[in-house]
Amino acid sequence: MLGLIAGAVDDRSARGIAAAVSRLVTAGELPVGARLPTVRDVARELGVSPTTVSEAWRSLTRAGAIQTRGRSGSFVTTPALPRQRLRYAQLGGLLQGVVRDFSTGVPDHDLLPNLTESLKRVGDARLTTSYLEGPVLPPLEAALRRRWPYQVEQLTVVDGALDALDRVTATVVRFGDHVLVENPAFPPVLDLLEAAGATVVGVPIDEHGMCPDALGEALKTYDPVAVFLQPRAHNPTGVSLTARRVSELADVLAAYPEVTIVEDDHAGDIATAPPVSLGTRLPDRTVHVAGFSKSHGPDLRLAALGGPAAVITAIADRRLLGPGWSSRLLQAVLLDLLTSADAIAQIAAARDVYAQRRAALLTALAAHGATAVSADGINLWLTVEDQQMAMLALAAHGIAVAPGAPFEVTPLGADHVRVTVGLIRDDFDSLAQILASAAGAPSRASGNRSRPHPRGWR
């Protein structure tokens, strides 16, 4: 086994050793349960220091590829993270006794378009005549291409935005690769990348999105394979890229042609910001995900995925060995919703309501001296003195929010909580008073006001 590992290593850095062992595990050449050689034996065989091999072993352990059992040694294991280690599992907040749960990040059900008429219209349709048909209904693909923010080479439909990001990750990211993300970032995306064995690097954001200078420095320092970002209604801050920022980021990325750009446009039609994409400048390297869960309904379980043919074809071909395609019945419902005047009007109304709710709570929080941002979408990012104390204080009022720590790639310099402001329908002032008090904000009398860009973003 020592010779097998040594023969697979062509890069004697910790990252290269970890990647080589990961490839052997994936290929089955190192089967589950196999005992690995000792750190010292591997170091001696490769002519590197034991510290380098130890770092590689730690990376493999964090990814769940191997398990260390003390003096018994290290063993190949199934690469699955325990649920309690997933960032996503930490978002539920303190749910006992909760009366108002603002931790979920889901849309208001009452603001989703009514599916009744759409289901009636497509209920008798015969949408599948062969298992070899294309994965996307042709009329839906045409409608999606009309909506796409740039001329895309190939499109497919998958089972939600996270399914899309999971499949893109499996296609473009390998164990030991560096991947750049926003800091803060959406926790399930961090879970996906870490489960794939990637080293995740956070890039600061400001009120216009990912910071170009910081992106350039990270590209130069880490040699990443991909950068993941949210072009609109960033979760958790609500920030959206401006056209100018898109151009600035594209200018930086143009010098790194091997880097794939992955965009998660999860908010879709409830975002007030206009659609933007780095694909307008770098279409051959941009994979864009258009989500419909927040705008048209989580139970549709649909998202569109578009980008270079090499990436999208690989994803579609791999799906043939699993689900094959996303339900064409649900695709037909989505097509109806995208083209129905009533549904379009309902979603436009929802977009306005969400905007009103964001503005109302931000105004009320400012009056109570709290620091928060909620630029777009359905979430609000509240700065607090102490995350756990804030959540305990809110739980005493029967309120649950999501902790900020799971969103952080690296510490932001201040604690935060995420509030699903899209679910707050009324009583904004009294709720803001409770939130501000839990956050440790100065009293109203201090005259302090909510700043638009919370401390700790950068």
TrEMBL record:
Family: In the C-terminal section; belongs to the class-I pyridoxal-phosphate-dependent aminotransferase family.
Keyword Transcription part of the UniProt annotation: yes
Record keyword Transferase present: no
Keywords: DNA-binding, Pyridoxal phosphate, Transcription, Transcription regulation
Transmembrane segments: none
Protein name: GntR family transcriptional regulator
Domain HTH gntR-type: 11-79
Highest taxon, organism lineage: Bacteria
One Pfam assignment: GntR
Entries under CDD domains matching the protein: AAT_like (cd00609), WHTH_GntR (cd07377)
Molecular function in Gene Ontology: DNA binding; DNA-binding transcription factor activity; pyridoxal phosphate binding
Family annotation (InterPro entries): Aminotransferase_I/II_large (IPR004839), HTH_trans_reg/aminotransferase (IPR051446), PyrdxlP-dep_Trfase (IPR015424), PyrdxlP-dep_Trfase_major (IPR015421), Tscrpt_reg_HTH_GntR (IPR000524), WH-like_DNA-bd_sf (IPR036388), WH_DNA-bd_sf (IPR036390)
